[in-house]
Design a protein that fits this description.
Shape: globular
Helix content: 25-40%
Oligomer: single chain
CATH architecture of the largest domain: 3-Layer(aba) Sandwich
CATH topology of the largest domain: Rossmann fold
Strand order of the largest sheet: 10-11-19-18-15-20-21-22
Structural class: alpha/beta
Number of domains: 4
Number of helices: 19
Strand content: 15-25%
CATH class of the largest domain: Alpha Beta
CATH superfamily of the largest domain: von Willebrand factor, type A domain
Length: 587
């Protein structure tokens, strides 16, 4: 690189950093990240749906159950007015969603056309909004005055931040081609060494392109002489993929690039340029996988039709055969003090005396039994001799199945802890204690690749000895997606076979349903809720433990109050399990 190119590039980057610092220093600015949690709760409450809030590329809009809002608001001089803008936009989008005003398909539309459509339908939306929430009219008038004042010359006011734009409201279903596999090489890329990870701004819509091999072969190299590196969005034309990892060298050029188009390739990757995106791109349903292997068919609940899709999901039960003895030993060494404390706590729980009513012998009278005795005597019936209270240890007729979510989301971090490691460490420590107290328990984990392939991996069946199963835990690694409903139904079937009186399913997951064939949002949440109802119908209790802050937006909708907890590290999770175990013992 020439000296003048180097100096020019450094000067441009300096100006960018200075501009960014100046924006961040302004106290009147409201950032979406700072208010996202409250806005999510507010949006879900006013719309009646589990709404997700995401940063928009600019003005935003709504798409299915997602509201896209500007990343920050700084047009007003006060923080309160900028915050009121977000409230207005949420209410506006809630009404727009209620009226179903949006693009009805997944075809690519011009941005200006989307904005014009949004402004054209604005009077209808505003009329309903002002009727339902009259106070929003004041905010609306303030916004009109603001953007009118920003208009220069003879140009028309830009109201796009008020009305947003139209977005595609339904997932694309145009690709009917079935896939025989889910890009195994792409899956293996996760296991390969990733040397560079850069994060860019989020995108609202993604369009998947097919690689034109002919254009790649015919491509002729050209040289462009620029003073600074640049990158452009796809406008046709294909170059070969060389697989080199030089993304860090081009990070400045990528800053303003919109990640709007995706291409599927089987090449190994060594760098990741990450943009948040919440909707599925163009995907097709996978063909039947592993049809020659043993599998079990389960129904899935379709809340829109209020009926089951019969035999819709295939669950493949598998037993983990590998072992990782060093992982087990390291967990015990690293958490020796935690295990000791856990053992003392659970010993206290197991040895705690419980008051038993209506006993033949005891230190105190049972008032209810005495009352029944006098009634029987007065009625001329033979009274019962069980009229005492007695404190004694009572063994619990109990079976517990711990179910671990090992989808790719468990490869993330919470409070500095890798989620999958927290799950495995807790499984080992809690398994040690349950085995010591002779509790009937099993340990399983799951992941999915569409409805045709949900894997249930058994680390320990109810009949398996813990002395062998404990060495298998360390071999578990994150993989694929999260079809929770199918995994819950299979776990319920296993618990139903136990002849114990009290049966519990403990799910450790981030609680977010997700799969390659659009098992997400309201559909996934309602299927999980229905699966939990099926458990209760079979007298099986359930409880969820999450190691991810975002779970607070999902678990309450599925498990209900007092049936879940959100934690961040192994110690918190173990303490929660102890409290849950004590609750189970006293039921």
């Amino acid at each position: 690189m020439a000296l003048d190119e180097y100096l020019f590039g450094r000067f441009v980057r300096y100006l960018k950093r200075r501009k960014t610092s100046a924006i961040q220093a302004s106290k009147h600015i409201v950032k979406l990240d700072d208010v996202k949690g409250k806005l999510t709760i507010f949006a879900s409450a006013v719309s009646g749906y589990p709404i997700h809030i995401h940063p928009a590329e600019r003005e935003g809009g709504y798409k299915n159950d997602s509201f896209f809002l500007p990343p920050r608001m700084d047009h007003f001089d006060s923080y309160e007015q900028n915050a009121s803008f977000y409230l207005f936009r949420v209410l506006y989008l809630a009404v727009q969603k209620k009226l179903g005003i949006n693009w009805p398909d997944q075809l690519q539309h011009d941005l200006m056309e989307s904005r014009l459509k949004a402004e054209e339908k604005a009077p209808l939306i505003l009329r309903h909004l002002f009727e339902e929430v009259p106070s929003t009219e004041v905010i609306y008038r303030q916004l009109l005055e603001l953007f009118d004042a920003k208009t220069k010359g003879n140009s028309s006011p830009d109201y796009s931040f008020i009305y947003g734009k139209w977005m595609n409201n339904r997932p694309e279903e145009t690709n009917q081609k079935k896939e025989n596999s889910l890009a195994d090489k792409a899956k293996m890329a996760i296991k390969n060494e990733i040397t560079t990870l850069l994060k860019t701004r989020s995108v609202e819509e993604v369009f998947t392109l097919e690689v034109d091999k002919k254009q790649q072969e015919d491509y002729v190299m050209t040289h462009n002489f620029e003073k600074i590196d640049t990158a452009e969005e796809h406008e046709g034309g294909w170059r070969d993929f060389d697989g080199d990892d030089d993304m860090k060298d081009h990070s400045q050029a990528l800053e303003d690039l919109k990640m709007k188009y995706t291409v599927r390739v089987d090449d190994e990757v060594h760098s990741i340029y990450q943009a948040d995106f919440v909707e599925n791109a163009t995907v097709s349903e996978s063909a039947d996988l592993n049809t020659s292997d043993f599998h079990i068919l389960y129904d899935e609940w379709d809340y829109t039709k209020r009926t089951y899709k019969k035999d819709f999901c295939k669950v493949y039960p598998k037993k983990i055969s590998g072992t990782d003895i060093s992982y087990y030993k390291k967990t015990l060494v690293d958490h020796r003090s935690t295990l000791t404390g856990l053992r003392k706590m659970l010993t206290t729980v197991n040895n705690k005396y419980q008051q038993q009513r209506r006993q033949r012998q005891g230190d105190q009278f049972d008032i209810d039994a005495i009352t029944d005795l006098f009634v029987d005597v007065r009625c001329g019936h033979t009274p019962s001799e069980k009229i005492y209270l007695s404190a004694r240890k009572k063994e619990k007729d109990l079976s517990i199945l711990m179910l671990l979510d090992i989808s790719l989301s468990s490869d993330g971090y919470a409070a500095g802890n890798r989620i999958i490691d927290v799950e495995k460490q807790v499984s080992i420590l809690f398994g040690e204690i349950l085995d010591e107290f002779n509790v009937d328990f099993a340990l399983g984990c799951f992941y999915s690749k569409t409805r045709n392939s949900t894997a249930y991996l058994s680390v320990k069946d109810f009949s398996d000895p813990w002395s062998k199963a404990k060495y298998k835990v360390g071999t578990v690694e994150p993989e694929a997606y999260t079809r929770i409903g199918a995994a819950i139904r299979h776990s319920g079937a296993l618990l139903k076979e136990r002849d114990t009186k009290n049966k519990w399913l403990i799910l450790i997951s981030d609680g977010k349903p997700n799969d390659y064939d659009r098992y997400e949002g309201k559909y996934g949440i309602n299927d999980i809720r229905q699966a939990l109802r099926e458990l209760r119908h079979n007298n099986i209790q359930s409880y969820a433990l999450a190691i991810e802050a975002q779970a607070k937006y999902y678990l309450p909708l599925m498990f209900g109050q007092n049936h879940y907890q959100i934690l961040t590290n192994p110690v918190e999770l173990l303490q929660a399990l102890v409290l849950l175990y004590e609750r189970i013992k006293h039921q």
